[in-house]
């Protein structure tokens, strides 16, 4: 019997994997579909997979976005605050369709958007908001530290994973997912002409993205502010349709409205995110030291948590659909010629130094203005 969301007209369209069975469909988008997958032999001690996974699938001919997402996640390495990628695999459906599959960690708690909807129109408890915000910032700091910009942070792309019985203020941990439109940080003004379009969702776009089509690390921080505001209020950061929202952000120079009912620390945190000039916006690293996310329980446990290592599949050549050539992705730091890739590797370290300088400059500006404290 066909399972709901799994088969169309009794046909398993994308087929099963070598060691997993495709289950019900969890969602779909322009990139393809997401299915719940379970292991064929969940009791095996030698499996590289958890017992349940989320599998993103698309026909091979239209799978470029998923393949790019796999490349980004491989470069980011493992973090307890980012959805884990267990590998990639090609399958053949019963109708002969070849599918590309990205094997991901399953967020059994759903998305942050789902959690907000279930809470009603009043938003989440502030203590829970603080815990999720801290997890998002830690994930984002890891992404930026590895030289990437997410470009599509929103509540739909934050997944909730059980806290593994560690306790704390939230039953689930927030993890960042969906890296389909992520990009590397801008390395040099001498590089290619910047894309004249923005990536992501209008509701979470920063002013520089709308006006100048510029999306770098500060743009992600603006999106974090939108997510936090949505968690606190239970409502989107902007009212209106797409075109009206873009006009508010771009032409009208408006800021999302911060309610008076939230705490002083929450207001201060949001003001640090909603700075129209990106050069003065706080970084993810700076926000991690804000009182709004500091002082929560289980800090020590979160910092030392070990992530299960499922990298064995990524090293299995037989399951890789598209092999990355050494010429295209090599990075030789000892070469006499400074290629774009070697420049990227060098600048990742410089980004951390720039973060410290920006933090010092921000403090000096605040002290000169009004001797401002957190």
Automatic annotation (TrEMBL):
Q: What is the designated name of this protein?
A: Protein kinase domain-containing protein
Tell me the domain of life: Eukaryota
Per UniProt, the keywords (alphabetical) are: ATP-binding, Kinase, Nucleotide-binding, Serine/threonine-protein kinase, Transferase
Q: Which residues bind ATP?
A: 56
SMART domains under this entry? S_TKc
Segments forming domain Protein kinase: 20-293
Family listed: Belongs to the protein kinase superfamily.
Q: Tell me, what's a Pfam family for it?
A: Pkinase
